[in-house]
TrEMBL record:
One of its GO terms (cellular component) is cytoplasm. Its EC number is 2.7.2.1. Belongs to the acetokinase family. Pfam families: Acetate_kinase (PF00871). It catalyses: acetate + ATP = acetyl phosphate + ADP. Homodimer. Keywords: ATP-binding, Cytoplasm, Kinase, Magnesium, Metal-binding, Nucleotide-binding, Transferase. GO terms for molecular function: acetate kinase activity; ATP binding; magnesium ion binding. InterPro entries: Ac/propionate_kinase, Aliphatic_acid_kin_short-chain, Aliphatic_acid_kinase_CS, ATPase_NBD. This is Acetate kinase.
Length: 402
């Protein structure tokens, strides 16, 4: 059965674009069924040889060629859609949704992109220096090459835009903080919103006190009460909070002064060390949890210790957020580690047994793409695994504006 037969005339689709500094990730999504009709990745833009991988059903097309800029990359993607399918002309694209990491204080929801929105995203470059310039490139070429559909920006920070002030404001001199826009913006908001919404739906309750653990290479926790985020672990940037693949998460900022003064490191070197050379990579030599478990299995003490540090940080956040919310109904795991790492879920469950968390070993061992409960009926907190789907969330949020 062809895609078009499965999705007859009533079908509408959203093209979701996540533009990075040297890459463009894309997915054609049916926002109604949730199906992904095609997806792909343009890599190594601006390097000597670039690559494009386009997936349509079971078919996978790979191209290796120089991709000088984002405009050329996206025009190649549009060509692949026409050559390999699905034809965009037949797919009834109703919007293009762009992922944008930093929305600052301007955006508490998705925004229909016009020149003013572009200018705002540009103004936010100092707060998102790695991401926003890359998103702007994607938006610019997207609007140029797909000019007859509305383009929507969906911000990673939007779900946390209305955090209570007591959670969002650092105890930093008010004038300095406000002059330089230093506050907790959070990140992964699209995922936390999607996952916490799915939990409410699955449990049939909209009054839940939830903790969501988004554990991927980047990792963040959020506290959500009745659908509203009340705290989150990432801050001014995605560096704060949990132990991550390559990031320290929480660390005394005085470590920066110390490294600058005593080790003579530059700000850029410390930035790199904290954002890329730390976390599981810095502690255990590898940022992939599967490797860390292998090393633990081989009896490597440093790997075990790294896992304990990772778990200790999670225990602290779950405890703190339970206190902030004065209770906890649902604890949910998502993203690469959260969805796949049953060992980690089991060990965290054991450390949270004091609060009545009881994970069912058989349910925990199930591998599935479906949202599911993994706690026992007696568990005081319902524990779930909910696969995140940021592309679908972006597609659905885009639709709310058109
Ligand atoms: P991101 O989007 O932040 O790059 P993902 O959410 O895709 O990250 O998560 C990637 C991480 O998921 C990998 O680095 C790895 O640590 C972890 N991961 C993936 N599969 C497994 C697995 N089967 N067991 C444990 N960890 C896994």
């Amino acid at each position: 059965m062809t895609v078009l037969e499965r999705h007859p005339v009533t079908q509408r689709t959203v093209l979701v674009i996540n533009s990075g500094s040297s890459s463009i990730k894309y997915q054609l999504v049916d926002p109604d069924s949730g199906a992904s009709l095609a997806s792909g990745l343009v890599e190594r833009i601006g390097e000597e040889t670039g690559a494009i991988t386009h997936k349509h059903g079971e078919e996978r097309t790979e191209i290796t060629e120089p991709i000088p800029d984002h405009g050329y990359g996206l025009s190649e993607v549009l060509r692949l859609f026409e050559q390999q399918g699905p034809s965009l002309a037949d797919a009834h694209i109703v919007a293009v949704g762009h992922r944008v990491v930093q929305g600052g204080r301007y955006f508490s929801g998705p925004a229909l992109i016009d020149d003013e929105v572009v200018a705002r995203i540009e103004q936010l470059v100092p707060l998102g220096p790695l991401h926003n310039p890359a998103h702007l490139k994607g938006i610019e070429v997207g609007r140029r090459l797909l000019s007859d559909v509305p383009h929507v920006a969906v911000f990673d920070t939007a779900f946390f835009q209305n955090l209570p002030e007591e959670a969002a404001r650092y105890a930093l001199d008010r004038e300095v903080a406000d002059t330089y826009s230093i506050r907790r913006y959070g990140a992964h908001g699209t995922s936390h919103q999607f996952v916490s919404g799915a939990v409410s739906e699955l449990l049939g309750r909209d009054d839940l006190k939830q903790v969501v653990l988004h554990l991927g290479n980047g990792a963040s926790a959020s506290a959500v009460v009745a659908g509203r985020a009340v705290d989150t672990s990432m801050g001014l940037t995605p560096l704060e909070g949990l132990v991550m693949g390559g990031r320290t998460g929480d660390i005394d900022p005085a470590a920066v002064f110390h490294l600058a003064r005593v080790a003579g490191m530059s700000i850029d070197e410390i930035d790199h060390l904290f954002n890329r050379g730390s976390g599981m990579k810095g502690l255990a030599g590898d940022n992939d949890m599967r490797e860390v478990w292998k090393r633990i299995g081989a009896g490597e003490q440093e790997a075990r210790e790294a896992m304990d540090i990772y778990l200790h940080r999670l225990v602290k956040y779950v405890g703190a957020y339970t206190a902030v919310m004065a209770g906890l109904d649902a604890l949910t795991f998502t993203a690469g580690i959260g969805e796949n790492d049953a060992n980690l879920r089991r060990e965290l469950g054991e450390r949270l047994a004091y609060m009545g968390v009881e994970i069912d070993p058989e349910l925990n061992a199930v591998r599935s793409d479906e949202p599911r409960v993994i706690s026992t009926p007696d568990s005081k907190v319902t524990v779930l695994v909910v696969p995140t789907n940021e592309e679908l969330a972006i597609a659905r949020q885009s639709l709310t504006l058109i």
